């Protein structure tokens, strides 16, 4: 199975990165998502989300949805954004 072929909706709207393979599933607060993606639907990898926001993501940007903690165990880039360098690999 090729997730990019079977699930094109999982690819980043900007760079095309396969967020399915990269384990970049996350939940940020709705107002931030609407700011970055006014159309609301679609996926953005973490790097492209930051580019659209014009800044690095901070822990407070993420909701307390369980998906964030679960995916941070699989995606180091998300882990760093959620917990910072010092809290990564907890």
Overall description:
- By secondary structure, this protein is mainly α.
- It has one domain.
- About 45% of the residues lie in helices and about 0% in strands.
- The protein has six helices and no strands.
- It has helices at about 5, 20, 30-35, 45-55, 65-70, 75-85.
- Helix 5 crosses helix 6.
- The longest helix has 12 residues, at about 75-85.
- The mean pLDDT is about 90.
Query: Between the first and last Cα atoms, what is the distance in angstroms?
Result: 32 Å
Instruction: Determine the structural class based on helices, strands and strand pairing.
Output: mainly alpha
Give the low-pLDDT segments: none
The largest sheet is:
none
Which strand-content bin applies to the residues?
A: under 5%
Overall 3D form: globular
Task: Give me the count of strands.
Answer: 0
Please state the CA-atom Rg, rounded to the nearest Å: 13 Å
What do the pLDDT scores average to?
Answer: 89
Counting H and I runs of at least 4 residues, what is the number of helices?
6
How many separate domains? 1
String of helices and strands:
HHHHHH
Q: Level of helix content?
A: 40-55%
Work out the oligomeric state of the chains in this entry: single chain
């Amino acid at each position: 199975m090729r997730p990019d072929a079977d699930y094109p909706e999982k690819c980043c709207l900007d760079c095309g990165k396969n967020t399915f393979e990269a384990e970049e599933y996350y939940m940020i607060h709705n107002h931030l998502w609407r700011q970055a993606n006014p159309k609301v639907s679609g996926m953005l990898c973490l790097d492209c989300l930051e580019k659209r926001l014009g800044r690095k993501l901070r822990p407070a940007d993420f909701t307390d949805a369980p998906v964030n903690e679960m995916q941070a165990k699989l995606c180091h880039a998300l882990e760093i954004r959620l917990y910072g360098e010092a809290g990564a690999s907890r």
